[in-house]
Amino acid sequence: MLQTSDSLLKENVNNPTPPLKVADSTRQTSAINIDSLSRTLRRDTTIAVSNAKALADSAKLDTTRQRSGLEAPVDYSAKDSLVYDATTGFAHLYGDAKVHYQNMDLSADYITLNMDSTIVHAQGVPDSTGKAMKGTPIYKQGSENYESERMSFNFKTKKGFIEKVKTTQGNGFLRSVDSKRSNDGNFYLQNAQYTTCDADHPHFYLQLTRAKVSPGKETFFGPAYLVVADVPLPLAIPYGFFPFNKKYSSGIIMPSYGDETSRGFYLRDGGYYFALSDRMDLKLLGEIYTKGSWGVSAETNYAKRYAYRGNFYVSYLTTITGEKNLPDYNKTTSLKVQWSHSSDQKANPNTSFTARVNFASQNYERSNLSSLYTPTAYTQSTRASSVSFTHNIPSLGISLSGSSNITQNMRDSSLAITLPDISINVNRFYPFRRKKAVGKERWYEKISLSYTGQFSNSINTKEDKLFHTPLLKWKNGMQHRVPIDATFQLFKYINISPSLSFSGRTYLSRERRSWDNTQQEERRDTTYGFYNLYDWNASMSFNTTLYGFYKPWSKLFGSRIQTIRHVFKPSMSFSYAPDFTTRSYGYVTSYVRTDKDGKVSTVDYSPYASGLYGYPSGKRQGSINMSISNNVEMKIKSDADTSGFRKISLIDELSASMSYNLATDFQPWSDLSTNIRLRLSPRYTFSMAARFATYAYEFDKDGKVIVGNTTEWSHGRFGRFQGMSQNISYTLDNKKMSTFFGLLAGRGWDKVWEGIAGKRKEEDKRPNPKDDSDQLEDEEEANTDPMLRKNRDKKNEKKVSADVDDDGYLAFSLPWSLTFSYGVTMAEDRSKPINTRNMRYPYSFTQTLNFSGNITLAKGWNINFSSGYDFNYKKLSMTTASLSRDLHCFEMSCSIVLLPYSSFNFSFRARAAELADALKYEKRSSYSSNIDWY
């Protein structure tokens, strides 16, 4: 291998090569004899050395030429041979030839280099078949790459001419018959093709008559038309451009067009994108309709590494339907505000600020055209928004938090607002514990207490009355809680936990009531000030844990079962609270009411009934609470575990609870609450809760059914079953069905028994998905268009060989899945007559059934659907279906909403972001409850 710098030939010291091969003087340098690569070239080392020395001397003496030459050395090499013709000044490089100048690289199987004019020519050579070319020129400059059949380049002027060039720009591919490169790095193309299809023979392309390419920036082109499957279509444009900037930058967002029955033709989602900085951007969009409706929206994303990130979106719509001066004319305005913000714990571990705002006026989703094709947004009945701030002081054990919350009901436009909600929490501490403990812990050192304080200001109102409501109508107040508790052990096995809790409330207003005998109506007067209310309660609980073990008889149950363990947890607690409704506390008072007939009655009420935290309304309590909990497990031999044993849960939990109130003689027993939980498989746990009423129904003196003071047990009956609720879901797919039919045919039972015996093989380890919730991507990746990044990653997917069956044919596969979700609620139906024989009401059932699934018909064909059945109305609930088709460089999708309203949305567009807005066809149903299928 030989290398040269400019016109000076010098031998590579690090990699010495044989003497320079020089052609015979009779050989014409303009002729390219491919067979000469396999022949022995005639060598004249004297001529080579003398010419090399002469060139070196002339280069050293001619300083004028050296100053007007190249700015850097030109390095070139050839793997096969290098032939230098001193007569013409041409160097011929054969076999994997390479030329390097500054940041430009050129490689080809054959390169001709003019040593005087700094012009280089490169081309490929025919392969063994003579039908195709191999070793075609590849030109690289920085990150740009150009492949062609023939290329000429001037290193001094940096101009070049390229034939049949192929290059990648952004997410697309450019091919050109003839192209020129200017000294500023731009390319001028003639008879070019642009496509985003990566196939060797593209399925479609834009035929460009002329184009100017700024590598890595954009491409401007003149008249162009669309060609699909080598068929020119009558779809042409006079001019256009494609942006190729990998980093995000400001630019125009092209709108989409269409028609909508009630609002007319439209242009929507068009506007401008502002790349404000690396930390913030701004997108302004607008929409306009021919019948007068219009809308604007703004969205910004912001982020600071290791500090915070967020998104803010606001949209305003003016919707006009009908004709002016006609009865059906209607004009509405709607607003939507969304804000999400999160702080990074790395910036300040003790402080956090989060925001999840999702506010919209009642008619926004019905006015927004996009929501019509998104059933979840269109049928959403409630919205919740919150902004919260938290600060912890670890040294003091104190945490401060503040939040604002808004809950919307989209059906009646009602709002529930809390602004602000401030709380302070003091962690549990032991005030009597010694700083330097010596010896055993004393009993009073186990006493602990904590504190929680809260201040809230809230209101319930309508959207249109929010800003017209005076501040005095807002409900506000403060609440304080101080729990004191401790835990002791009795006889080592019984845990005793006494506790005492104090609560206080502070209100800024109260409401006094009186009776107006003249108007015969209740009068309410609000007074303002500081009003304090307090209450307290005490309790003591006892609990322990008992263990029972049983070893089954091996002759009956086999030797694999080692032990059955039963865990029994009984607990009992006693609680006491005085009667705060007595007049001495002042929380409940009364007034005298005299009706128009002169009948006098006393009406009890609380001046603090409308308070934010209520008032101490409990009667005297002295209740005993009892509960039991059971857990049963079995240990068997297993080869899958390193210990040689495996635990199986027989009953995960079986519990029951009941209480008795010592402070009352009427219905002191509570209902019996039971719960059972069974772990049927590692992926499914069955859970059910039920309540049994203690007291029986009876008739009063008027013949009405009431709950009496006699228990069901006194009538020889168990507690009255109140009802239950249960939800079951299951997913069925083609693999499970194949396994099921295989078992019916006698195949696969060995794996089933291995699973029962605990011999399941360990599943293949899979890498965890990348968690980027707290980390930003690299700067270049973060500024890359998501669609470009998605398509780029798709190209890097590894191709795997297709599965074949036992006979060597392509294995048939039709992946599908079907998910069922069934819920049932059982409860007494008191609307029907009672059974007088057993004094029981009949039971009614409320059922819900939902199902969804997907089918992959073939590679790229996907069908998704979802629906449900309403048993009350005896008809299907929300029903949707969608069909998508991956057409390699195009994608097609069709979604349909069948119930409770009807709509459809069809889209056919190019996959690449550069052509997604230009090469597309969309058809949507009208904004109506009914659609026209056309």
Kindly describe this structure.
With 934 residues, the chain is mainly beta. 8% of the residues lie in helices and 53% in strands. The protein has ten helices and 55 strands. The chain has a 31-stranded antiparallel β-sheet that branches. The protein has a six-stranded antiparallel β-barrel with strand order 6-7-12-13-11-10. Strands 1-2 form a two-stranded antiparallel ribbon. A hairpin with a 2-residue loop joins β49 and β50. The longest helix has 17 residues, at 45-61.
SSE diagram, text form:
Elements: E1 3-5, E2 8-10, H1 45-61, H2 63-67, E3 74-77, E4 81-85, E5 90-101, E6 104-114, E7 119-123, E8 125-126, E9 133-134, E10 138-141, E11 144-147, E12 150-154, E13 159-169, E14 172-181, E15 187-195, E16 204-214, E17 218-221, E18 224-228, E19 231-237, E20 240-243, E21 251-253, E22 256-260, E23 264-274, E24 282-289, E25 294-304, E26 308-321, E27 330-343, E28 351-360, H3 364-367, H4 375-378, E29 382-393, E30 398-409, E31 414-429, E32 448-462, E33 475-485, E34 488-490, E35 494-516, E36 521-543, E37 546-550, H5 554-557, E38 561-577, E39 589-594, E40 600-605, E41 621-637, E42 645-661, E43 672-681, E44 684-693, E45 695-699, E46 705-711, E47 720-733, H6 734-744, H7 749-756, H8 779-782, H9 786-795, E48 816-828, E49 843-858, E50 861-870, E51 875-876, E52 879-887, E53 890-899, E54 903-910, H10 913-916, E55 920-924
- Poorly predicted runs: 1-68, 756-792, 927-934
* Rg from alpha-carbon coordinates: 42 Å
User: Please, what is the average pLDDT?
Assistant: 79
Categorize the overall geometry: elongated
The number of helical segments is 10
Helix content: under 10%
Calculate the terminal CA-CA distance, rounded to whole Å: 71 Å
Q: What percentage of amino acids are in beta strands?
A: over 45%
User: What can be said about the biggest beta sheet?
Assistant: 31 strands, antiparallel
- Tally the beta strands: 55
- Give me the secondary-structure category: mainly beta
